[in-house]
């Protein structure tokens, strides 16, 4: 089966090809084992090797798209965080209180209210305004820094098709705190 080419033995073409096929089969099996079972339209056992490779390629494309989507969301969040920090800095150096910052993030809203200790309002009133306008508050926090009170609320839109009219929410919140 092997030829003598000098001091080293070299496998013949049949053996080399058989080893290559075994190696490729092993690699295909490893690849298909990395793909979650729910990504296969039918059972892995029922698919040919070519179909499994196509499914794996499609899954990798989906992962790449998801990565791009998450990068975009991260960039947006970083911009919003940077903007909020600028808002807080502006308040700290003397903007007229109270201040409302309302961010429409598509399927969610972020509300930042900053008031003085002497001009406070009830947080439940703000939550009521958001809920009446079609948003559900998922988190809220209140903190005091010096003589300023910071209210931060995050809300999800209840019905994504309808959404929330942010200008109306902003106007109602202005009426509430002024």
From TrEMBL:
The keyword Cell membrane does not apply. InterPro entries: bHLH_dom, HLH_DNA-bd_sf, MASH1/Ascl1a-like. One of its GO terms (molecular function) is DNA-binding transcription factor activity, RNA polymerase II-specific. One of its GO terms (cellular component) is RNA polymerase II transcription regulator complex. It comes from the Eukaryota. Keywords: Coiled coil, Nucleus, Transcription, Transcription regulation. Residues 8-63 form the BHLH domain. PROSITE patterns: BHLH. This is BHLH domain-containing protein. It comes from Vitis rotundifolia (Muscadine grape).
């Amino acid at each position: 089966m092997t030829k003598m080419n000098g001091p080293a033995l070299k496998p013949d073409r049949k053996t080399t090809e058989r080893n290559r096929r075994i190696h490729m089969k092993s690699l295909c099996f490893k690849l298909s084992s990395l793909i979650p079972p729910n990504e296969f339209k039918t059972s892995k056992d029922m698919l040919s090797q070519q179909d499994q490779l196509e499914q794996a390629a499609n899954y990798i494309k989906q992962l790449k798209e998801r990565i791009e989507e998450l990068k975009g969301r991260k960039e947006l969040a970083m911009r919003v965080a940077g903007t909020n920090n600028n808002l807080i800095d502006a308040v700290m150096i003397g903007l007229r209180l109270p201040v409302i910052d309302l961010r429409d993030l598509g399927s969610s809203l972020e509300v930042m209210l900053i008031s003085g200790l002497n001009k406070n309002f009830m947080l439940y009133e703000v939550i009521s305004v958001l809920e009446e306008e079609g948003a559900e508050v998922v988190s809220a926090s209140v903190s005091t820094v010096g003589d300023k009170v910071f209210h931060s609320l995050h809300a999800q839109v209840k019905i994504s098709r309808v959404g929330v009219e942010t200008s109306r929410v902003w106007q109602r919140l202005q009426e509430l705190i002024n």
